Amino acid sequence: MTKEILRIEKLNKFYDKRQVLFNIDFSIKQGEVLALLGPSGSGKSTLIRCLNGLEHFSSGNLFFAGKKLVPTEKNWQRLRQKIGMVFQSYDLFPNLNVLDNILLGPTKVQKKNHDQAKQEAISLLQRIGLTDYTAAYPRQLSGGQKQRIAIVRALALHPELMLFDEVTASLDPEMVRGVLEIIKELSEKDNMTMIIVTHEMNFAEQIADRVLFLDDGHVLEETDGKQFFVNAQTKRAREFLESMKF
Amino acid sequence: MGHLGTNILFAGNNFQRLLGGLWTTIWIALLSLIIGLILGTILGMLRTLKNRPLRIVLRLYLEFFRIIPTVVLLFLAYYILPRQLNLNLPADQVAVLVFALWVAAEFSDIVRGALISVPQHQRESGLAIGLNHWQLFRYVLLPQALTLELPATINLATRVVKTTSLLMLISVMDVINIGQQIIEANGQTHPNGIFLIYGVIFFFYFIVDYSLSLLAKKVDIAKQH
Question: Which terms in the Gene Ontology molecular function aspect does this entry carry (chain B) (predicted)?
Answer without folding.
Answer: transmembrane transporter activity
